[in-house]
Fold this protein.
Amino acid sequence: MKIDYDRAANAAYIRRFEGKVIDSEEVAPGIVYDYDETDRIVGIEILGVKQRTAEQFKNREHLTFAISRNA
């Protein structure tokens, strides 16, 4: 896993696996999942990192979507 932060864009990217991104989907405001050809989440983009609170990061509703999509 690799985490990058772009200060100018105020965005973070979490790369979970190497692979070509085939599809992307915004699963919550400012949270974008990138999928490979097998529908596996290869990366997660978080927009507006500086404006987010710890409470927002604790909210995991968007993870339920990822689990159901991969089921």
